[in-house]
């Protein structure tokens, strides 16, 4: 990750120095796109935590400026350094109100934006302004195809950068993280790329007046996406609240469901799960003990891993029946129902939930195990029938990097 930050810093310093030394070319274009990017950064108000692209309008405007070959029929010659300099200056200007409120843009997003825009500008501008290419391409379909190809490469570059940063922060395998980032491009990422291309094409023909016209659809898309994300966030909070019912009723230790969910997701990423698979895994891990609410006598400390197999299966089936009544995806209910089966008969998510739940039960302060190392050893002893060896070893790797702490304090 240090290399990514270093590349972003070097590109920023070089671009700003070059622009200050040589002056701003075509200042009207630079000002118009700078204002658009700054407004896009201001529009990150209301962004939800974890959004992959909290300022899509700014991202689209930056891409459009990088891919701008002509303005109202006249050649644009602002160059790669000025492109990066304008994007950096506008992004910083638009971020000032957020910084004052203590909610400034994350450094990861800024570095990705700088490197992605620099990549797009380096790919497009020297190629477009090479001798004869602009004449042959014109403003027809070949020009649009060129923009789409460059946008696809730019999106891939951004996904790789995001996966590298996440890999450095979390230690998860690069492949699953990259697949998750590529899958995320189908959402707001595709809208950003499409709007960037449309803005560049529109300004090439109609001039700067095209900027406000082509920004409206993306603003509406951003609003719709945030409403959808807010609904999903509320949905997850409802599931988490329901999962806490076992803690409030005294059936499980405080924070058990949350710890199992966090650790299960980490193990799932380690094993290559991504996207919807991780969502199912998270919901199932949160609700894996919900069947205990049907018991007359609570299990001591909620440690179902210490019960006979027949009793574990009965509680799992009761939990699956409860989950099916909540309207959650049937896939979640299947994981909850089958978490006590022999691992060879389970789907991968159920194998993960069973192993992680057993680890947290065995490593708890009140269990008969003497701590995390003893708990892992007991899981390894059960890999012949109860726990998949690959899941247990993935759990061990996650814990070695520092997973959620077991115990009763949450």
Describe this structure in words.
- It is built from 17 helices and two strands.
- The chain is 70% helix and 1% strand.
- It has helices at 2-22, 27-42, 56-66, 79-100, 107-128, 133-137, 141-170, 174-206, 210-243, 245-248, 256-270, 276-286, 309-324, 330-337, 348-363, 372-381, 389-400; strands at residues 70-71, 74-75.
- Strand 1 (70-71) and strand 2 form a beta hairpin.
- It starts with a helix and ends in a 10-residue tail after the last helix.
- With 410 residues, the protein is mainly alpha-helical.
- Strands 1-2 form a two-stranded antiparallel ribbon.
- Helix 3 runs antiparallel to helix 4, helix 3 (56-66) crosses helix 8 (174-206) and helix 8 packs antiparallel against helix 9 (210-243).
Provide keyphrases for this structure.
single chain, 410 residues, mainly alpha, two-stranded antiparallel sheet, elongated
